[in-house]
Amino acid sequence: xxxxxxxxxxxxxxxxxxxxxxxxxxxxxxxxxxxxxxxxxxxxxxxxxxxxxxxxxxxxxxxxxxxxxxxxxxxxxxxxxxxxxxxxxxxxxxxxxxxxxxxxxxxxxxxxxxxxxxxxxxxxxxxxxxxxxxxxxxxxxxxxxxxxxxxxxxxxxxxxxxxxxxxxxxxxxxxxxxxxxxxxxxxxxxxxxxxxxxxxxxxxxxxxxxxxxxxxxxxxxxxxxxxxxxxxxxxxxxxxxxxxxxxxxxxxxxxxxxxxxxxxxxxxxxxxxxxxxxxxxxxxxxxxxxxxxxxxxxxxxxxxxxxxxxxxxxxxxxxxxxxxxxxxxxxxxxxxxxxxxxxxxxxxxxxxxxxxxxxxxxxxxxxxxxxxxxxxxxxxxxxxxxxxxxxxxxxxxxxxxxxxxxxxxxxx
Length: 412
Known about the structure:
disordered N terminus, 21 strands
C-alpha cells in the first residue's frame, strides 16, 4: 500500500541555498530517492558531505520502497555471513533506533513461518538453523503453540520470530529527505538522469533539468540500476528483470484472522517468499504477493506494457534459461494472477477460513530482480564501482530493512 503522495514542491521549495557551511565541501550525487538512495544521502550528509539527490518521480519512495509490505525483517532466511544477513541484522536495529528517535510508527508484531505438510519440515529446519546462526531470536513451535499465537492458522509445525516487525517505509523516506535538506543537501524531484560524463576529477550527471557535477555518484536507481550502470561505463554482470507482486487487502470482518505476520515455508530455489499475510502498521492486513513477469519495468497494472522493455527481457539469455528451468513455477504464479480463486486457495493453506469475498484488490509492486546471463538469480546485494560511480545493481528484500546498514557500507 502507498501512503499519501509527497508533492514535489514541498521538497523543492525546501532546497537550501549554498552557505558558508556547505560551500567547498566535496559534492556527491545520489541517483534515486528510494530508501537505499535516501539512506545513503543521509549517511553522507551526517559525515559533512554536500549531497544532491536526483529522482525522476514527483515524490520520494514511489516505486519499490512505497509498494512493499512494510516488514522489518529479522534476517532469518539469509545465508550466514552474506551481505543480506549481516546488513539485515544491523540495519533492523538501526532502523528501529531511527524510528524511535524520529517518532515514526513501527511495531514488533512477530512472525510465524508455517509448515503445512511434512515434506516442508526439512526446509523449515534449514531456515531455523540459519536464524540461529544469524543471531535471530526464534523458536521452533508445535501446532498447539502456533494456534496460541495465530489462532486461525493451520500448520503442523512452525518457527516463531517474535522480533520481526512492521513499519511505514514511506514515512521513513520522507523524514530522511527532511534531514538531508536540514543538513544543507538538495532533493530534486521530477529530475530524470539522461547520462553520465566522466571528467578529469569529477563526473557530470546530465538530467532533463540541467547538469550536476560531483566528485562521487551513487547509483541507487532500483528498477533502472543496470541502465545507469551502463551510463557509468561498465557492463553489469546481471540484467534487471521486473517481477510484479500483486496484493489483496482483507476486508475489516476478516482482519482478525491475522495478528502479526504469517508466512509459508518458501521454495529454497526461488528468491520469493510465497503469498503471506502481513499486518500493516497503519491498520489493515495485506495478502500476497505472487511473482509474475511484468511487461514493463514499472508495470504495476496487468495491462502495463512497454514493447521495447518486454523485448529486452524476452530476448535476454538469462531470462530464457530461468524460464526453461522454472516454467512450472511460473505458470502457477501466472494462474494465481489470473484467478482470484487460485490466489485464495494458496492463502487457505495457511488460513483455511479465508474466502474469496474477504479479499479486496490492493496496489501491486514490482521487484527489480538481477538475473545473470546463465539464468541464475542474484541472491545477494550486488555493488559495482565504475571510477567515481558506485553502482548498486541489485538491492532486493531485505534492502528496506537493511537500508541504513547498506548506506553505512557504501559510504564507508
